[in-house]
Design brief:
- This protein is of the alpha/beta class and about 325 residues long.
- The chain has 2 domains: about 150 residues, Rossmann fold (3-Layer(aba) Sandwich), CATH 3.40.50.620; about 130 residues, Elongation Factor Tu (Ef-tu), domain 3 (Beta Barrel).
- About 30% of the residues lie in helices and about 25% in strands.
- It has a 6-stranded parallel sheet, sandwiched between helices. The protein has a 6-stranded antiparallel sheet with strand order 9-14-11-12-13-10.
- Helix 7 packs antiparallel against helix 8.
- It is elongated.
- The relative contact order is 0.12.
Length: about 325
């Protein structure tokens, strides 16, 4: 998969070119319908599929004081898109100048660069250009004029909920990571480097990989204990239990950490980058009367986690659900 940083680079692709456009934060189930329209079109006519997205998230430039926490870093988004077999990803830089571009100029630039532009696929609520002057109606008009196909994907539902990045953020913020996973089509995740802590988990009999999250780029759920799945270097995957919080029983509420106990694993992970996928929430973070009470609860958490993770595997409709 090729990575581009400018529209002009699209000229290097074999035509006809099919482009899916959007922010695609989370690369959720609705986004994948838009991307699928581009890849399907390219497969039919032997052309190239492109995902055009923006870096950074436009909200971080347009309203930095109110920008939502992101669901996926640019690196994670790119990795997920590669899993959908697109030929190229255009990580279009987004700044005030780009935000001020006229909608027509933006589409004309795409049509000029591609040889030829066969299709633009977008979601039903997509807007573009200066002051959001462009919408799907304008896109269809420009498609007729510039001789390409405009594909507008209808809302994708999970039950009665329209799947959107906003709905996913709401679920994660509420700690309902299982619902977020249903909307995403995979578990919400983050990557971090394992740091060397005070080895308190090991002293309690439950060694943990400590992941500092104070500066995490992605949205995190509330403090609590979660069942998780862990991706380790070398494409090794394990189940686990994670405590996200400030360890009130031991530290009295200091640095926020994600402490992960990897089930059925022994080894040194210090300095390794790991990916943690949130599966479900077991309980809130609690301050216990002492270390012994904490140890008793952790043992209970491990039993509950094994049962919950086993059940989630049995109930998973797609045994090859994305874990990227």
């Amino acid at each position: 998969m090729k990575i581009f940083r400018s529209i002009e680079e699209l000229a290097s692709l074999r035509g006809p070119v099919h482009v899916a456009i959007g922010v695609f934060d989370g690369v959720h189930r609705g986004h994948r319908e838009v991307i699928g329209a581009a890849t399907a079109g390219a497969a039919v006519d032997g052309g190239s599929s492109v995902v055009l997205t923006f870096d950074p998230h436009p909200a971080a430039v347009l309203r930095p004081d109110r920008a939502p926490a992101i669901l996926t870093t640019t690196e994670t988004k790119t990795r997920l898109l590669e899993g959908h077999k697109v030929d190229a990803v255009l990580l279009h830089p987004f700044d005030r100048e780009v935000a001020g571009c006229r909608a027509r100029d933006f589409i004309e630039a795409l049509a000029s660069a591609c040889a030829p532009l066969a299709q633009i696929a977008v979601g039903w609520d997509w807007t573009f250009g200066r002051d959001r002057e462009g919408d799907t109606t304008m896109l269809k008009s420009l498609a007729s004029e510039l001789k390409f196909s405009a594909t507008v994907i209808d809302p994708v539902h999970c039950g009665e909920t329209i799947i959107s990045s906003t709905a996913i953020r709401v679920a994660i913020a509420a700690g309902d990571v299982a619902r977020a996973a249903r909307l995403l089509g995979r578990g919400h995740s983050l990557s971090a480097t394992v740091s060397r802590g005070r080895q308190l988990g090991r002293q309690l009999g439950f060694p943990t990989a400590n992941l500092p999250v104070a500066d995490a780029e992605v949205l995190l759920p509330p403090n609590g204990v979660y069942t998780v799945r862990i991706s380790l270097p070398g494409d090794r995957r394990f189940d686990g239990v994670a405590n996200l919080g400030v360890r009130p029983t031991i530290d009295g509420g200091q640095e926020r950490l994600l402490e992960v106990h990897v089930l059925d694993y022994s080894g040194d992970l210090y300095g390794e980058e790991v990916r943690v996928e949130f599966v479900d929430r077991l309980r809130s973070e609690t301050k216990f009367d002492g270390v012994e009470a904490l140890k008793t609860q952790i043992a209970r958490d491990l039993v509950a986690a094994r049962a919950a993770l086993s059940e989630s595997i049995e109930n998973r409709s797609d045994s090859r659900a994305e874990f990227l």
